[in-house]
Amino acid sequence: MTESGQQRLAELFAGVKAEGRAALLPYLTAGIPTPEQSVELFVAMAEAGADGFEVGIPYADPLMDGPVIMRAGEQALRNGVTVDVALRVAQQVVERTAKPVLVMTYVNPVLRIGIDRFFEKVASAGVSGVIIADLPVDEALPYLVAAKQAQVGIALFVAPTTDRTRLVSVVESNPSFVYAVAEIGVTGERSANSANTRALASRIRALSDVPIVFGVGISTPEHAAHAAADGDGVIVGTAIVRRVLEAQSHEEAKAALTLAVSELAVAVRRSR
Amino acid sequence: MRLSRPDETGRFGDFGGAFAPETLMPALRELEAAFVDAWADTGFHADLDHLLSTFVGRPTPVYHAERMSERLGLDLWLKREDLAHTGAHKINNTVAQGLLTKRMGKPRVIAETGAGQHGVATATACALLGLECVVYMGEKDIERQALNVYRMRLLGAEVIPVTSGAGTLKDAVSAALRDWVASVEQTHYIIGSVVGPHPFPWMVREFQKIIGEELKQQLDGSSGLPTPEVIVAPVGGGSNAMGVFYPYAGDPDVDLVGVEAAGLGISSGKHGASLGHGSPGVIHGAMTYMLQDDFGQVLEAHSISAGLDYPGVGPEHSYFKDEQLVRYESVTDDEAVEAFHLLCRTEGIIPALESSHALAWIIREAASLHGKTVVLNLSGRGDKDVQQIAAMYD
Q: Average pLDDT, whole number, for chain B?
């Protein structure tokens, strides 16, 4: 592959910006319901209009995740989905869809492999970027260095609770994009539009033009359109994972995701 | 060398730090500032000391266990944390964090509990101070600690069963942290041990070190009393052990021994010996020794004692281990139960199963401890364990 992950990510954000919209980035836990079928589900979502993906690496103690993604992670771990298996899923998604893929994980599996080695593995799987849910900017330096070395993108988090000092240190750390937490809480579906996205975006924009990706609590096309109005990307996680966990068959899961993602794709395109 | 406080990243040597979702980070920084401010405030100390003496019943006594001493061929003293209000050392921390919660102006408290002692102590502090209280408890622990569940409810706390994972302490901590991510603006998390992200390990140690400070005054070598040569305490998360060890850490005349749960035996893989048989990693927001598999997934711990059934340990213990300031050993479920019975019959004291682990190590090592002055930190009373012990003989 000639293009680095960092470059593919930059092109993604530049591309949607040129179209005057935000990228739709659905999340699914790798290996749900099986590694092979999860690849098929990502392919179906690409065909339905997703711009890229977040592939979840299952973790036994996911502090940032609500019950649905927790349950998906437990199921994947029982099915033997290790970091290597999850990265193989991610690699196949890249190869099959030609879309940029982010992986989401927690600190400990990365440490176990070794920070540098993890980022090398990510790069060689063709993955574009890494999101680590329990990595605040204060602890991020070795991860930022390793990501740069491997030419892979890395996100840093900003939440509605983040104060100005922390926000400054996030943007000054030059992440590939900011993962802006739209709701105070763990991942999960919400009933209303986020009341935080506009203010968060303007606080970040006042300091930097780093791409902003909203996640947490974005469940419906309406929510996605609302968040997309102020961001460069929107992650929809629990609403996708729940449909897969609830489906009675692979065909049903595929149909449900095709419908959901095509509605979300329309929503992010009509948001501005 | 012991450190009076962790460095600016919250580390004791290589261990500690704060690996938490960004949503929580400002609250952790706010807590650190509030703690530093309160801990330097004589008014806060006056309020705390008043409650510790009139409500908690401190100082707790040191008891000379003469019949056990004779039986074991050593000089055994018990630091009676079991006599503190609510029956364990946990109340030292919850009263202090409760006062801090009031000071920060937060109306709601959450806590996790394993054996239920921290949950009861938190519910008690909240009743005392007029705070709303929610306690997360694994469903397996709810089953084995039914009495404490009822006590928490009597004290006005809501007990929420945690069904994820194995339904034990690790899962309760995770559930409390998830609640906190969502409720952080109005809620303080009273963590029950020297675990979690910075500043918790440091702050809880400061609130528990009164155990060792009292002991230093009580057994100071004057008026015919000895000074400790060996101090033994059980280690799950490690707050009672840190409380009694810290004031002595680095003293060349005192051996400090932390006793972890060997469960069904180390070789069975069903144990809670994070320090003795784990490896460094990040659990519940801190870098520390933990039980994990080759892929960095947290493993389930096992112990007959709910308070020791935890796959992590306070990061300062990890530092003490690597600095060789404390020796960490382990004893099995069976050894702990045997020690439990022996103390009941020999001294008329029903110890917590956690504390029974430390006693079991003393019994096992009696020959090498011959003639020495040994202090057992009797971290809690065993009333909560009576039902579980009874069920073993049904």
A: 96
Contacts of B173 (CB under 8 A, 6+ apart): B112, B136, B191, B195, B196, B284
Q: List the structure tokens of B249.
A: 């850490």
CA distance B76 to B365: 13
The tokens describing B233, both together, are 């305490």
Beta carbons of A138 and B283 less than 8 Å apart = no
| Cβ atoms < 10 Å from Cβ of A159 | 26
Q: How far apart are CA A219 and CA A188, in angstroms?
A: 8
CA angle B22, A265, A206 (to 5 degrees): 40
Separation CA A210–CA A180 (nearest Å): 11
> Which residues of B are less than 8 Å from A82 in CB distance?
295
Other Cβ atoms less than 10 A from the Cβ of A206: the count is 10
Q: Which residues of B are catalytic?
A: 90, 112, 379
Q: Is the ipTM of this complex over 0.90?
A: yes
Q: Confidence band (pLDDT; 50, 70, 90) for A272?
A: low
A137-195 residue pLDDT tens: 999 999 999 999 999 999 999 999 999 999 999 999 999 999 999 999 999 999 999 89
What does the DSSP assignment read for chain A?
--S-HHHHHHHHHHHHHHTTS-EEEEEEETTSS-HHHHHHHHHHHHHTT---EEEEPP-SS-TT--HHHHHHHHHHHHTT--HHHHHHHHHHHHHHH---EEEEE-HHHHHHH-HHHHHHHHHHTT--EEEETT--GGG-HHHHHHHHHHT-EEEEEE-TT--HHHHHHHHHT--SEEEEE-SSSSS---SS--SSHHHHHHHHHTT----EEEESS--SHHHHHHHHTT-SEEEE-HHHHHHHHH-SSHHHHHHHHHHHHHHHHHHHHS--
Residue A114 corresponds to which tokens in the numbers above?
Answer: 């070794």
d(CA B125, CA B21): 28
B286 phi and psi angles, rounded to 5 deg: -130, 145
Domains of chain B: 19-51+90-205 (3.40.50.1100), 58-88+209-392 (3.40.50.1100)
Minimal Cβ distance to A159: which of B23, B282, B283: B23
The pLDDT tens digits of the residues spanning B152-185 come to: 999 999 999 999 888 888 999 999 999 999 999 9
Where do the domains of chain A lie, and which CATH numbers do they carry? 5-269 (3.20.20.70)
In sequence order, the β-bridge partners of residue B160 are B136
Q: Given pLDDT bands bounded at 50, 70 and 90, which one contains residue B223?
A: confident
Q: What is the mean pLDDT of residues A100-104?
A: 98
Shortest CA gap A181–chain B (Å): 8
C-alpha distances in angstroms, A144 versus A137, A186, A196, B18? 9, 24, 27, 17
**Cross-chain CB nearest to A109 (options B21, B185, B296):** B296
